[in-house]
């Protein structure tokens, strides 16, 4: 990542409100562009000027275009996409609508997002762990064997782990699951805008605010067409009265009352992402992750978790000298203006053995930013 490449992405930074901080916290929430913020605020203002429902009707073409773009990114039809409030709300809507056998087994990787494990268990589903390689990625041969010998009711993968650089081979897993007739659902909360999320999974859910840098309070659920008939959805006559005949069951999962300004803002964010070029952004984020891990490797008192070359911009740093990760995160912010996350092991209880400092830059990160992080951590040890 030479000066030239850094420079190429500084426009991304220049399009956001200026900040004195070094933002290395996209896995929590990305920084929206000034254009996204302007469009979001303009819609909210329009609601007050012409009436909220009139403003929503005016925004219908923008929302339809954004819906189609987001559906394309998730690999589903436009009618297979529902806007929700968060990835969690999308997952819960899916769990409520897609019947799974009582006591059925959900196969997950050890890196699974902790709240998903809790959601499955609390609905009476049993968990089984998929075999993985030394990097934590699902072993596809062993997945194929499991699907043949002891098919679970559901395979669930978190495509990009929340706490460290780890990307699951979701497209290959989707092909195996489809051939075996076992549904695959994907948590793409950390993957949308970061990895290729059009993987052929039966259902996929994500959030606006992280790698797409859209507004908070907006999530999305995509269900591929063969899965529509599995959905058990009910809507009140009042809700149905506002929807055209033949509305897909997925659209019936969409929240009726909503942060429409946020959805309009997400549509702007996805336009900007598509203009930047998803493949180019993916490549740059992989590069940002690699540079982060290379910069932090060998830092006294810290250990980079996982392989340096993982194609994700999330890095987990394990404290090796008894540091209090929460305290380090707070001091990085207060004393050095560097924003990171203190990751609690509950994020991925089957993969994390203790807290990690999470570093998650976006495409605009420079070698200088990461050098400052390294120096700040070194000064604290
Ligand atoms: C892997 C993963 N899944 C799900 C979520 C939850 O997303 P939301 O806060 O939009 O519900 C997160 C949030 O950090 C996440 O990292």
Radius of gyration: 21 Å
- CATH C-level label of the largest domain: Alpha Beta
Instruction: Work out the count of structural domains.
Output: 2
**Sheet with most strands:** 7 strands, mixed
Number of strands: 13
Supply the helix-strand structural class.
Answer: alpha/beta
What is the H-and-E element order? Answer: HHEHHHEHEHEHEHEEEHHHHEEHEEEH
How many DSSP helices?
15
Shape: globular
CATH architectural designation of the largest domain:
3-Layer(aba) Sandwich
Uncertain runs are: none
Bound molecules: pyridoxal-5'-phosphate
The termini sit apart by 27 Å
Strand order of the largest sheet: 2-8-7-6-5-3-4
Describe the overall structure:
This protein is an alpha/beta fold. It has 2 domains: 3-24 and 277-380, Aspartate Aminotransferase, domain 1 (Alpha-Beta Complex); 36-275, Aspartate Aminotransferase, domain 2. The chain contains 15 helices and 13 strands. It has helices at residues 3-8, 10-14, 34-50, 52-58, 60-74, 87-97, 114-122, 140-149, 170-180, 225-228, 237-241, 260-276, 278-296, 325-336, 367-380; strands at residues 22-23, 81-84, 105-108, 126-129, 154-158, 184-187, 203-207, 219-223, 302-305, 315-319, 338-339, 341-343, 356-359. The chain has a 7-stranded mixed beta sheet with strand order 2-8-7-6-5-3-4, sandwiched between helices. Strand 5 (154-158), helix 9 and strand 6 form a beta-alpha-beta unit. The radius of gyration is 21 Å and the shape is globular. The two termini are 27 Å apart. 47% of the residues are buried. The mean pLDDT is 96. The structure holds pyridoxal-5'-phosphate. Pyridoxal-5'-phosphate (PLP) is lined by residues 86-88, 113, 158, 162, 187, 189-190, 207, 219.
